[in-house]
Specification:
The chain has 324 residues and is mostly helical. Helix content is 47%, strand content 3%. The protein folds into three domains: 49 residues, no CATH class; 129 residues, Cytochrome Bc1 Complex, Chain D, domain 2 (Orthogonal Bundle), CATH 1.10.760; 66 residues, no CATH class. A two-stranded antiparallel sheet has the order 1-2. Helix 5 packs across helix 13, helix 8 crosses helix 13 and helix 9 crosses helix 12. The protein starts with a helix and ends with a helix. The relative contact order is 0.11. Bound molecules: heme C (HEC) (2 copies). One heme C (HEC) binds next to helix 9, helix 11 and helix 12.
Length: 324
Amino acid sequence: MSDNHNPAGGVPTTGHVWDDDLADFTNQPPKWWMLGLTASAIWVCVYFLMYPAVPIAVSGTFFEGVGLPGSGKWTAINELAADQKVLDDARAKYENKLKDMTPAAILADAELSEYVIRSGKVLFSDNCAACHGQNGVGTIQAGKFAMREQGLMAPVLNDDDWLFGGTVDTIHETITGGRQGMMVAHKDMLSAAEIDSLANSVAAGTPTANPLFAEKGCTACHGEDGKGIQAMGSANLTDKIWRFDGSVEGIKQTITYGVNSGDKDARVAVMPSFTAGGKLSAVEMKKLAVYVYKFGGGTPEAAPAPVEAAAAASDAPAAEAVAK
Ligand code: HEC
Ligand code: HEC
């Protein structure tokens, strides 16, 4: 081995020689290796000047002249911002239009709806799914209050059963203004037998067959036909679609303690306003209205009463102002 690499003849040793034929010679490293070494040293200098090389927490102009943050001005943040700009530019064409459009107009535009549904998905997951479940399928509330609050934490949104109305405008109103249905506690107004009787009729989906339903004032909020009044968010009691626990026991619980009634055992159902505190921008809330409508359960005939339509129109600028 040593014969191959160190042909005898003139190359001095470092003084380390073992057993006469094993020696440390002072040969130069090969030329290619030296070139590589020099090139890397030059590269380090160039890189040091061009790119941010010293991990100090300054990005101002002070060091720029001497090249510390890099005279090439490259930073990971700049690169991200540039990429972001490409995306924003692509979106701007849609976002600008959305600003001045009503949810109903967005819904009527196929291309915009498609765009809105895509960004709505992320908004919904971030802001709504915790209560309404992914894609609005609802979440069952479990845990230590299960006995008391068993049932859906927030209504299912992907069916066509609406407490407050399923047109894109009423959905939009729900999101911008929040909702809080109220049913009084009946524990002091009805006897246990009356509650039992009502609960059984309601569970059977035939509340109006029970004379107590009208006598005890249930019709005032749930309507003569028991189908609910959307202006109050009172549930339809004839469709066997349950917002809370639909067993006889569960219904007794609802009748006895009410909903948002202030009673400590009342069922709690509060839909927060997303305008308040600028939680979402005006455009984001429009996107969500269309997104929720498009779950498939939306009510097509966008026929809000003229008063409501006017109110919604005057709400929009206010919502925008708050969002800013
Ligand atoms: C803190 C839990 C919570 C969050 C978060 C929440 N909601 Fe709600 N939402 C509710 C509750 C509770 C109700 C029912 C209110 C009632 O029964 O009075 C409701 C009702 C609604 C309704 C009316 C349903 C109907 O049948 O008329 C819509 C639409 C709605 N929410 C959409 C949304 C959207 C969109 C978001 C996200 C921006 C959202 N919600 C976030 C709890 C929530
Ligand atoms: C002050 C108005 C009001 C009165 C009076 C009232 N309710 Fe209600 N009730 C509501 C509202 C609003 C809701 C929906 C609550 C929600 O989901 O936010 C509701 C919900 C219910 C539910 C739950 C339905 C479900 O899907 O889980 C039942 C059951 C019910 N009411 C039965 C009755 C009966 C029986 C009476 C008469 C003894 C009655 N209510 C009287 C307003 C009222």
